[in-house]
Amino acid sequence: MMSISASSTVAAVPVPAAETAQREVELRCFSYEERFGVMGAMLEALDQCGCWVESREAVSATQVEMLFTARLSGVDELYSGLIGAGVEMSRDSHLAMTWLCTRRRHQPEGASPFATVGVRLEMSFLEQTEMEAGFVAQGLA
Fold this sequence. Notes:
Strand order of the largest sheet: 2-3-5-1-4
Largest sheet: 5 strands, mixed
Order of helices and strands: HEHEEHEHEH
Structural class: alpha+beta
Radius of gyration: 19 Å
Number of domains: 1
Distance between the termini: 64 Å
Shape: globular
């Protein structure tokens, strides 16, 4: 059993369970950019947002899966950081991130510094075909 002396300046404050309730979000992402550049920028963005990377696994030569925890109060920065790193998201992933941003603004637990969200991110690195490159160059894609 641990005892706290009377001279201790740090008080233990219990965190309500409702404030620490974790939500899970799945993100499916891809990029046509070089893998190591995007991964470096993405990890930098996660670090800047205060995320905790719990695991990172190369599923195949073109796919990486990451599990991390983010503060609910920082999901806006997380969303913009991932986009800024060159990560493209599926429609469902954009909707999930938009839902989190809205929840952060309009729910009482969103203001809590203790509220977190668990994120499972599947990242695929794709090769751009000549036809796709032509459409992009012409502004058709």
